[in-house]
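Lecture 7, part 2: worked example. A protein chain together with nicotinamide-adenine-dinucleotide.
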Amino acid sequence: MNSTNTNQPLAVVTGGASGIGLSCINRFAKEGYEVLIIDANKEAGESVLKNLKSEGYASNFANCDITKHEQVAGIFEALGNENKSAQVLVNCAGISPGLNALHQYPVEEWHRAIDINLHGTFYACREFLNLAVKNHASEGAIINVASIMGVRASAAQASYAASKHAVVGLTKSIAQDYAHMNIRANAVGPGVIDTPMNTELMKDENIMSFMLGRIPLKRVASADEVANLIYFLGSSEASYITGSYHPVDGGYLAS
Ligand SMILES: NC(=O)c1ccc[n+]([C@@H]2O[C@H](COP(=O)([O-])OP(=O)(O)OC[C@H]3O[C@@H](n4cnc5c(N)ncnc54)[C@H](O)[C@@H]3O)[C@@H](O)[C@H]2O)c1
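Predicted complex, written out as structure tokens:
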């Protein structure tokens, strides 16, 4: 990670090298933020960074496995050492584990899902807040990407549902604890989004017709449609919104 010195507000996006995170990176950059991509995929992160730089955007990439607390802490410590602050944190790094009945659930896969989707989100929130406290920040916004599975469950997805329900609870707790610093925390609940995470799933006509049958808008969403909501929640337009969960699901949860 190389230092960039701008007076622009900084938006940090975990999982920013692909899918919803990448759409967030592009949106915040276009809206005048300096952006910091945190992602485990070095090749993808470097490629995104190269494109951003070629378009003149203040941007940076930190290659980091979000499940390693010391790596996450190192990134925010480096920001502090450069006298920088971060205004927005978007937690998109996540995985969708394989489908399995609970009595046969591979224990390692359970731990991996909870590690990335929940512990990784905790580490990034912890270090973002730690930096904010050190800097005596007077505002800030965290947007945690949960899922419709953050409030509902579907068959054979226990680790995913457990991790995403926990992310919603974590977000609500942060909203309580940091409201006095005007740091807002909200969770978003995407439905079915056209990202690399769903490339295989979207090839399966049976699954897609079952899913589309349950989505009133009868289509999946683009990653940009999720980034629109995330950008809004990070902006001052959402100044009175904290501690809440916002679906972006084509009406799925309402049906
Ligand atoms: N795509 C959907 O339909 C959908 C629906 C609901 C929720 N979500 C959630 O949205 C978030 C983003 O998903 P997406 O669809 O954009 O997926 P994606 O696979 O396109 O992007 C996920 C990114 O996270 C990164 N990542 C994974 N593990 C990591 C780790 N240990 N450390 C650092 N980075 C890591 C990947 O390298 C990748 O760049 C996830 O939390 C996912 O659960 C997605």
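The chain has a mean pLDDT of 97. The first helix runs from residue 19 to 30. Keep this in mind for problem set question 3.
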